[in-house]
Amino acid sequence: MQAPSRQPSSNQEHLHPKLAATVRKHLGRPSRKPVASHNAAALELLSQELADRPRPLVLDSFCGTGHSTTALALRHPEHLVVGIDKSGHRLAKRPDSPADNSLLLRAECEDLWRLLVERDIPVDYHYLLYPNPWPKAKHLQRRIHGSAGFFWLLQLGGRVELRSNWQTYVEEFGVAMHLAAHAGSVARIIPSLPLSLFERKYLDSGHALWAFNVAISRHTDAAPGNTLPGKP
Known about the structure:
The chain is an alpha/beta fold.
């Protein structure tokens, strides 16, 4: 029998005091670091798949073993659902799927987001299901909303849904979105059908689960050095 999962343990009780300053810094100065070659190769695989069978796109970022990608492919049968994770070991554990509309890519999500924006490939839905919460206060910039990659996530557009069993993480993500002029909603959820192994584990352990949802319009003229996303 699987041991119950523990709640995230953090020395941070509320929103991080440097959240606003960190988000504004990254939105004002997008990362210009070189894109890793394996991330560029992953984009070419995706581009070829879309060229062969054009379909609107769903992203399952930080997908781990790909269980959530399989579930989302069944939820979005008219889309190509792309699971992204940097670990080939985790991706190798993907379950068999009756759906043929999914693709797993080994890549860093932040680089792939940037490449999708630069290639002008739109995203209809973007799921961020239980990413590593990095609960220690000193690790704020490793969280999605505290990282340089947050700029590119915003430029992708689409309907974004983030889920976590750490309420503070979801609320911080919502505040970061608000700072970028994208107002969404935070809510406690009780999924009837868990989307990922983590979600199943947390439900079975009695954790409260939280989600943030927002719809973002794409900014096709976005480029490093432009104004903040959502600003005129």
